[in-house]
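Dear H.,

Thanks for agreeing to be a second pair of eyes. The structure we're designing against is below in token form, covering all 189 positions.
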């Protein structure tokens, strides 16, 4: 691939692809340089540091995930919105493990402010409107959903559900039914 074609966006996209194959923690400037068949130093004209490269992967991944969740949520409310959100989240995490891992990275405040992180929070709160929760219950419910979705996909990716006769998808569907019930019967603070 020609050196002249390097741009920050192309470098971040290539690094995100490498993260999905080899793991987010293994992404290095050297690995990306090898992908483009250039020297490491050539990347530094476009990306300041490994931290900035990894932050770029996180920003890209948050935007991709927000787009997928947003498309899945269109026209849905209540349980249907909860299930659509959850399925889009899980599918992205399973299909793009390195990108998904990057979404858990703590971003610098100015980078986080410009990322799609706010869209995720807004969409999560939007699905909770169907359950008529007020604060602080809504915040607690947001945290419950994130912990459930994130924990489930980490265990699933790590092989935590490989034993037994019940499929992880069947258990996922049961977990979503339980979340729907819990959100609909939330104990008031």
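And this is the sequence the design step returned. I haven't edited it by hand at all.
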């Amino acid at each position: 691939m020609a050196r002249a074609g390097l741009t920050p966006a192309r470098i971040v996209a290539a690094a995100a692809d490498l993260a999905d194959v080899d793991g987010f923690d293994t992404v290095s400037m050297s690995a990306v340089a090898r992908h483009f068949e250039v020297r490491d130093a050539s990347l530094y004209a476009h990306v300041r540091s490994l931290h900035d490269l990894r932050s770029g992967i996180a920003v890209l991944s948050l935007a991709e995930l927000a787009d997928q969740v947003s498309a899945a949520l269109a026209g849905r409310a209540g349980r249907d919105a909860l299930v659509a959100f959850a399925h889009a989240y899980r599918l992205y995490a399973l299909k793009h493990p390195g990108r998904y891992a990057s979404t858990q990275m703590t971003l610098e405040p100015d980078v986080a402010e410009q990322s799609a992180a706010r869209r995720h929070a807004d969409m999560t709160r939007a699905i909770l409107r169907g359950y008529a929760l007020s604060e602080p219950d809504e915040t607690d419910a947001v945290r419950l959903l994130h912990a459930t979705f994130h924990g489930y996909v980490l265990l699933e990716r790590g092989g935590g559900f490989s034993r037994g006769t019940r499929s992880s998808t069947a258990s996922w569907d049961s977990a979503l039914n339980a979340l729907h019930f819990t959100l609909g019967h939330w104990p008031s603070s």
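Two observations from my side: The two ends are 59 Å apart (CA to CA). The first helix runs from residue 8 to 22.

Warmly,
E.
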